[in-house]
Amino acid sequence: MGIKGLEQVIANLNSLDRNMVPNASAWAINRVARTAVTAATRKVAKETIAGDNRVKGLPVKLVKQRVRVSKASSNGRMNARIKVNRGNLPAIKLGAAQVRLTRKKGALLRRGSVLKIGKYLFRDAFIQQLANGRWHVMKRIEGKNRYPIDVVKIPLAAPLTTAFEAEKKRMLDVEMPKQLAAALKQQLRLHLKR
Fold this sequence. Notes:
By secondary structure, the protein is α+β, with helices and mostly antiparallel strands.
């Protein structure tokens, strides 16, 4: 990190109160972690393509609920941990599903059934309750001999990985020095108020 005179500031703050620097560090780390999660999840939600009609964008809530942040604390662990569920997103999570028979022309809407979930279309898909009791959107898969159907999923592993790696680098280089400086100023302001 490139803050000028950081050692001098830390020494001065430690002479006033021993908890100022750890509190400021934990505050800055947690804030940067939250910002990174928000930026990465929004980017993934905006750029992901879903459905047979190739609709761009997912609800941000669906991507954000796959991320957990363990916060840093001033008296314990001095790092924030971001855990991301990088598994594929089942199509049933997109909303309420409707199966429709179509008589329209076109490659996607040719005769047969179309499953519609919000603005997303899935050709020749159907809803089924699995043995574990969960309902899922299923589709026939060619090439599987024994049981030729599979759950319809939206792949998120690659976009989540690239987005979080890019955000991590950007946050550590750009955002962390700013947040740490702001946190140190805030701790000093709070101490002087007392």
